[in-house]
Specification:
homodimer, alpha/beta, Rna Polymerase Sigma Factor, Chain: A, eight-stranded mixed beta sheet, two-stranded antiparallel sheet, 33% helix
């Protein structure tokens, strides 16, 4: 290997809930045990007031920065954003990133072993909500001795958690940075998630969620991912990147192609993305998390949406992406407008929704400027 | 029944190709027999010069106007547009509407019986192209004694046929009206079609296309339709129509809903749309037609796209829809700009791509104005 990777980061796991201290969930369940996988970067100051919580999106993990192995590909999903001299500067801040409740990267979720049965929970796992995820993150920061959060930041489903942090723990959160997200999951986004879920559940290999001893519902999960990818990227990017180029490989197993003899590159790209997710993500978990997104509604049980948003008095920086079709810029602007102390900034990008994982230069400027104030 | 429906229209079927006169297809096949299902409205003048061809979209049929039975629901898909005093005025024009090659509404396609085997073609049907569809329509107008086409009009895949009409038969076509369409199918639209095809082919009931004696791959075809519906409508319409309303019915068979106990209305709507298509459309046909759309490229074999479009000298009226995410307005404007004698008009609508089947008032004004010139 060319580069030597030092300081390999290991994801820690801590049990935050047990039988004597179960999580009280929105669905009414008292649930335990719950283990939480997390990473931290930087040092907590003695007052416990320089912490930042980073919230990940649908298929993300606690591994936001650094390398988890000597493989350069093991770099964290927001590494360009977190570290010495970077916007989330580890010289100044103590950054906490955890896999959310119901995830499949170390935190307890539907693919975890139910200690009562010795088998994975599967569909017996309770339906968690975004608020449940945030409750668990709050337990984690308590465990770590954090007293104040300088900010909570995240994109997409991460941004939903950010909004809930501000509403659930206003005494702790000093500012928020929600990126390309929703205050209430829109019906179009719900529809998209439901189509993805059906793709998984239609796959006979899903076996009503009891597939763990047989292997994943590969086709279904791969298809779910492909549906999602079409909403994560933009027409413009696909046009620039793939156009109408054909893939040279023959797809012999598909008789439909006997007269066209090959696939368009965009099809090959989507299939590749689908296959990649199957290798790293659990199908039931995909069902649960997308459902948690659909249920997400900051107004639920709190009254009028605008009043609820208006009650977030802390400084907030909203970031939207001009080419995002999943959580459109107009939606970001509307949320930002409802907050009394908010700033709105725009990412110009052909990458669509995924720009929050790609356009670091633009985001860095906005976030650095906001945090320095 | 309240209303008495007179003048029930029967779709006619004519054999236009046989063994002595097969269709020479883009894929190289010499194919026959081909029957074509069509309807006509109005009278052809003695010179054969007052005809208009109407081209239907993906799941459409020849039945564009009038009633096909005494059931008021049997009304044609563009009835508001075709008839006495309507924009396509049957007092003036002889309107021809046919089910395209490879369809499943009377014209020969993959669900038709192969006379050589006595069984449906299934995947042994050749992959037709949009140009093949237009070749067959040309044979039909020849059969009907038509010498000139006052215009060719259609939306979506219908619009793709319109563009090919202008390029393939410039000596016959006097004007064109392409609506919400593409000159080259975009990679985003190809991706969407491919995801829909995978939904069908992933269904074990698809049986590699040999399902005819067992019944349709219902789940797969329904899912394909739902994917498509998300691109046919807009976020805005779903927001206004469904918002985050829940459906009252319990979805007991799905244990995922045990804690949410019901579905969002948008999910129920999409599932209903999926089921409805299964009852009226053939799964293999869906595969073939979406593939024909993906292959669609007016520049293919003709040289530079802009030059090809510029060669369409006849008057053209392009109509785009402001909320269309499938064939965005910008795409319509770009095509229109490339033609030397084109007009562009915009439909303002929350309905997205489907607006061309809904917003008749706006379209009527544009089309009437254009045809009167």
């Amino acid at each position: 290997m060319e580069t030597t990777i030092k300081n390999i980061i290991t994801t820690k796991i801590v049990r935050l809930y047990d039988e004597t201290n179960p999580l009280i969930m929105d669905c009414g369940d008292l649930f335990s045990p719950i283990d939480v996988a997390y990473e931290t970067y930087g040092e907590l100051n003695s007052e416990g007031t320089n912490a930042i919580v980073v919230c990940h999106a649908l298929t993300g993990s606690a591994h936001a920065a650094g390398y988890s192995s000597e493989d350069p590909k093991s770099i964290g999903w927001w590494d360009s954003f977190i570290g010495e001299g970077k916007p989330l500067d580890t010289k100044k801040y103590f950054i906490i990133s955890s896999n959310f409740l119901g995830g499949c990267y170390g935190t307890t979720g539907s693919s975890s072993i139910n200690p009562g049965t010795g088998k994975p929970y599967g569909l017996s796992f309770p339906q968690m909500t975004v608020r449940d995820m945030v409750r668990v993150q709050k337990s984690l920061i308590d465990h770590l001795g954090v007293r104040k959060l300088r900010t909570v930041i995240g994109g997409s489903l991460g941004g939903m958690q950010v909004l809930e942090w501000a509403l659930m723990y206003p005494e702790i959160v000093e500012s928020i940075i929600p990126i390309a997200t929703a205050a209430q999951h829109s019906p179009w986004a719900i529809g998209l998630n439901d189509v993805a879920r059906q793709a998984i559940m239609n796959d006979p290999e899903w076996r009503s969620g009891n597939y763990y001893e047989f292997g994943q519902p590969e086709k279904g999960l791969a298809l779910a991912r492909q549906v999602a990818m079409l909403s994560y990227r933009s027409e413009k990017e696909f046009q620039q990147r793939f156009g109408r180029e054909r893939q040279k490989e023959n797809i012999k197993e598909n008789p439909l192609h006997r007269n066209t003899s090959n696939l368009f590159q965009i099809e090959s790209y989507l299939r590749y993305q689908g296959k990649k997710l199957v290798q790293r993500f659990d199908a039931n978990t995909y069902l649960y998390i997308t459902r948690a997104m659909d249920i997400h509604d900051v107004a639920f049980g709190r009254g009028d949406l605008n009043k609820v948003l208006h009650s977030i008095k802390i400084p907030s920086l909203f970031i939207g992406i001009d080419s995002d079709i999943l959580y459109p810029e107009s939606e970001q602007k509307n949320i930002a407008k409802a907050l009394p102390n908010s700033l709105y900034r725009e990412i110009l990008s052909p990458y669509g929704h995924d720009a929050f994982l790609i356009e670091f230069d633009q985001m860095s400027n906005y976030v650095t400027e906001f945090l320095e104030k």
